[in-house]
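Retro notes
What went well: the complex prediction finally ran end to end.
Inputs used:
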Amino acid sequence: MGIDPGIADTGFGVIEKNQQGNLICLTYGSIKTQARLPIDERLNILAQELKKLIKKYRPNLMAVEQLFFCKNVKTALVVGQARGVVLLVAKQNRVPIVEFTPLQVKQAVSTYGQASKMQVQKMVKLLLNLDKIPRPDDAADALAIAICAGNSVRNS
Amino acid sequence: MGIDPGIADTGFGVIEKNQQGNLICLTYGSIKTQARLPIDERLNILAQELKKLIKKYRPNLMAVEQLFFCKNVKTALVVGQARGVVLLVAKQNRVPIVEFTPLQVKQAVSTYGQASKMQVQKMVKLLLNLDKIPRPDDAADALAIAICAGNSVRNS
């Protein structure tokens, strides 16, 4: 399970490796919370929805990006809060966390580290044999992170 | 209950208002997590210890500072993660959150907004009739936030 944390939208993508070593997309999407709600309620919605996904798909790993590149300190604080909740929910549900740098994630889907957002999205579509480019953007990002994790683990 | 969130140290301070309207300190301290532990484990320790404090003292309110002034984006992300966990645990344990600006907190203990850290700490000691200046620093900060909240609510 790849996660791209945020307060308004937390992208998620769940993939599995089949016997042939191919990556299959099980689901993807975005956990949304409304801006009019207080921050503690938004974080609680994120925690509840993420817990439901974990219960449903029982992932072996949860993959997140190691470092964020935020525009400013305020954005970093807000995203940090969502990331803290994501890591806590994973820990409480006994899902090990793996962290990858943004460069590792890009390299996992595009063989080079300079890929644009659109190139990453196209490769996610191709690698997972999807009908269309996954939307919203943070769901595509979450799938890219999941692919990076999927490539880094041995076939079970 | 005032909280000053952090990954290594989360300061806490619990006060109550007595019949005469005086603020009494019930406890203060710091929840510490070791740097050698993975981030999800540190956040989980913070969540567990904070939950214990809530169960023990059953606060009517949890007060935190509204905005952080972090040196850089990375610090903001790290502190944001701890803050997210604190807000989530409060919500999950049905403790309402109140947020105050750093200026409001300083004004609550020092009557003016330009007080130094040491002046704030001395006023916390005085206002709560403590034997000594509370340590560590983040516990004193948490008590200052609690005093700010205590002054802002009606006597029950």
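What we learned: Helices of chain B lie at 39-57, 73-92, 102-110, 117-127, 137-152.
What to try next: split runs per interface for comparison.
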